[in-house]
Amino acid sequence: AQSVTQLGSHVSVSEGALVLLRCNYSSSVPPYLFWYVQYPNQGLQLLLKYTSAATLVKGINGFEAEFKKSETSFHLTKPSAHMSDAAEYFCAVSDLMWGTSYGKLTFGQGTILTVHP
Amino acid sequence: NAGVTQTPKFQVLKTGQSMTLQCAQDMNHEYMSWYRQDPGMGLRLIHYSVGAGITDQGEVPNGYNVSRSTTEDFPLRLLSAAPSQTSVYFCASSYGTGTGANVLTFGAGSRLTVL
User: What residues in B contact A106, CB-CB < 8 Å?
Assistant: First the structure.
């Protein structure tokens, strides 16, 4: 079965500082990987996705993530944090055993990002 | 487009009561799923559906029932509520193949408290 580990349940940065949210996955086959973001009292929305076309993936709001197969990692970064980035971020992997996987994702535990002025 | 609509947004139940969380999508998506979100545990899949009349269990299905009679609706039924089912529930939908099938559109969530 797939699994996802997010290192650090809380990350705090100053506005303008680098954001780094860590995600490691376990998978016996090349996975599809995703980052979702959840703003307070809202559902999740897609930030970016890895589809094997390129190892560096750019998403919305200036975020990007790099797929490193040797490290089984898919860390999320943003060069300069903004107050509006404060949210909870989830890394997720798809279960490809069933072909398209039908929207069945395995999520990490989540990382709450706090941005200080 | 409304996207994915969940009702109710908040609900308080007593142990042993039953209820149904409603989920409707207006995007003609094939796939629908229910997740529960608990602090420190991320989201866990309860049940999912690949089309009208077809459902299957996810990671944590015990105590929940689903059915899908139409493409649009995917209700989640709690048969006999327990305090362990206190959680935030999210309905999601998607369509297509490959990564498209995993780009989920989420509802706003239903917060359930079982006393």
Answer: 45
- Which pLDDT tens digit goes with each residue over A15-25? 999 999 999 99
Taking only residues 6 to 25 of chain B, the set having a beta carbon closer than 8 angstroms to any beta carbon of chain A reads: none
Q: Cβ B93–A44 below 8 Å, yes or no? A: no
Render pLDDT for A63-75 as a digit per residue (tens, 0 to 9). Answer: 999 999 889 999 9
A90: nearest CA partner in chain B: B42
Beta carbons of A64 and A77 less than 8 angstroms apart: yes
DSSP per-residue letters across A52-115: SS-SEEE-GGG-EEEEEGGGTEEEEEESS--GGG-EEEEEEEE-GGGTTGGG-EEE---EEEEE
Reference B74, options B43, B110, B38; nearest CA is B110
Task: Name A115's bridge partners.
Answer: A13
